[in-house]
Design brief:
single chain; 81 residues; alpha+beta; 3 helices
Length: 81
């Protein structure tokens, strides 16, 4: 999560999508925004010292479809591998 916050601080207008093995994930407020556009249920995951983290994830083979939806809705997106 340190990497997420580090990149988000430098590029606050972008929704960040992180690659994690065979999935792409979005966190915190980025996940909230994307979940509405993509119609993906948001998940709560325990992180660190009992902190709750909001996230969405989807398989890598769905990236093109989801990127198209986000970009067409006017959202700036950055892929982080």
């Amino acid at each position: 999560m340190e990497k997420y916050y580090e990149i988000k601080e430098k590029h606050p207008v972008y929704l960040l999508i992180f690659r994690n093995a065979d999935f792409w994930e979005m966190y915190a407020n980025d996940a909230t925004i994307a979940s509405r556009v993509l119609n993906i249920d948001i998940r709560k995951q325990t992180h660190g010292h009992g902190q709750t983290l909001l996230m969405i994830r989807f398989p890598c083979n769905e990236l093109d479809n989801h990127l198209t939806k986000l970009i067409r809705s006017g959202i700036r997106v950055a892929l982080c591998e």
